[in-house]
Amino acid sequence: MFEKLTSFPENFLWGGATAANQLEGAYLEGGKGLTTVDLIPVGPNRFPIAMGNLDSFQPKEDEFYPSHEAIDFYHRYKEDIALFAEMGFKCFRLSIAWARIFPNGDDVEPNEAGLQFYDDVFDELLKYNIEPVVTICHFDVPVHLVKIYGGWKNRKMIEFFETYAKTLFNRYKDKVKYWMTFNEINMLLHLPYIGAGIVLQEGEDKQQILYQAAHHELVASALAVKACHEIIPSAKIGCMLAAGTVYPYTSNPDDVWKAMEQDRESFFFIDVQSKGAYPGYTKRFFREHGIHIEMQPEDADILMQNTVDYIGFSYYASRCTSTDPEILKDQTEGNVFGSVKNPYLDASEWGWTIDPKGLRITCNQLHDRYGKPLFIVENGLGATDVLLDNDTVEDDYRIDYLDRHFAEMAEAIQDGVEILGYTSWGPIDLVSAGTGEMKKRYGYIYVDRNNDGTGTLRRVKKKSFHWYKEVIANQGAQYFK
Q1: Which InterPro entries match (predicted)?
Q2: Is residue 2 in a domain?
Q3: Dihedral, CA atoms, 66, 68, 69, 71, nearest 10 degrees?
């Protein structure tokens, strides 16, 4: 009953994770429409657009949009999936580009060419016994829905999303067993245009708009869960959180309370998706900030009756906060989430805190809070890799990062946390969601592409490729000694 584990569970899903807009390219091929990410350039306008502070409805000739070609997975998926299979992947997390299926988002009929593309990708994965793990919406909204309806500000988006989700479930019910509704749903509050297709106008009540949009996404997510359970009863469908525990800088109770409040800002979304109702602390926040959420009479029942099967989450870094104005001046850089520098931790090249123990803490925190299986669907190290003359990349720093995180993941499993699987972010180099760069690389596979879009797109195995292959082959047994 209390015997020691000797490896990760036999059915543990090892793999990698990607997003359509960061690797597919072919942004207008096969009948695909424009999505929000297709209009986010590299350069000074990137963050103002991503944050919803600038309109962007058409590509501009003087801007470079990295998603337009990305790493051309659209034409090279067979080559890439063969490499994933060589590493021994048990699963591959990918997203479906909404505008490949419904180019405008409100189309009466889906685009057959888009549906067939993903059929082909899933068939290729299943040929190698790799389970597809599919995110229905990963930071892309058809631009037509933004222009005509205002994105997720508008309740009509629920209907469009439900139609989209049902189309996917009916088409791929025999090929996909694992689904997630919205990628990092809590990012809606931080990058509104990326997260919800929202452009904020001067004078608008930002909090009111964002939390109303959040309600629309939460109802849409619940309806997708309902549809999935009805159409594919054997499938599992989860939510997805940008996670990372917030530490208090000191044991001052005010610091501890502030850290809890910052955690709750994100947990709110998963509380609703997992527990089926708005938590009391959110109701108080709305009351004290004059936020009034317009709900339909049926919304409460929809949320309560259609909770998720598992909690998917990304973990890159923990965060830290303080109530001391002087300490707050020393902030980390590079991550969308603000954080006080933690004196006990190092940071990556891009300023992201490196905290393997934080993964174990986050796993335990989420499992204790929700009592549902977890799925670590993003984790990894962005770094500047150098392709050597012998056609390899000596990325020992990535191996070290992952090795330490795997050790803590194993500890969490021994703590009693149920974890379905682990998909490291960007198993193949792809476009950075944050900066739009290619030089911020996460992959086990190097892609010859530069920040300006030049390069041959040739694929090269890094040292970490062979290391991860061995971890999977051994079922991570080295972490249970």
Answers
A1: GH, GH_1_N_CS, Glyco_hydro_1, Glyco_hydro_1_AS
A2: no
A3: 60
The set of catalytic residues is: 378
Distances in Å between the alpha carbon of 438 and those of 20, 27, 453, 461? 15, 17, 9, 16
Positive or negative: CA dihedral 38, 41, 45, 47:
positive
DSSP string, 285-330: HHHHTT------TTHHHHHHH---SEEEEEES--EEE-S-HHHHTS
Confirm whether 1 is domain-assigned: no
3-state secondary structure of 402: helix
Please name the residue ranges forming H helices in 289-435.
299-305, 325-328, 356-370, 396-414
Q: What is the CATH number of the domain that holds 396?
A: 3.20.20.80
Q: Is residue 354 part of a domain?
A: yes
Q: What is the pLDDT along the chain (481 residues), one digit of tens a residue?
A: 567 889 999 999 999 999 999 999 999 999 999 999 998 888 888 877 777 666 667 788 888 889 999 999 999 999 999 999 999 999 999 999 999 999 999 999 999 999 999 999 999 999 999 999 999 999 999 999 999 999 999 999 999 999 999 999 999 999 999 999 999 999 999 889 888 999 888 889 999 999 999 999 999 999 999 999 999 999 999 999 999 999 999 999 999 999 999 999 999 999 999 999 999 999 999 999 999 999 999 999 999 999 999 999 999 999 999 999 888 888 776 566 778 999 999 988 888 899 999 999 999 999 999 999 999 999 999 999 999 999 999 999 999 999 999 999 999 999 999 999 999 999 999 999 888 899 999 999 999 999 999 999 999 999 999 999 999 999 999 999 8
- Asked, for residue 48, whether it belongs to a domain, the answer is yes
Q: How far apart are CA 141 and CA 150, in angstroms?
A: 11
Domain that holds residue 363: 13-480
Q: How many angstroms separate the CA atoms of 340 and 282, rounded?
A: 24
Residues 36/54, Cβ–Cβ less than 8 Å? no
Q: At 54, phi and psi to the nearest 5?
A: -130, 140
Helices and strands in the chain: count of H runs, count of E runs: 16, 14
| Tally of domains within the chain | 1
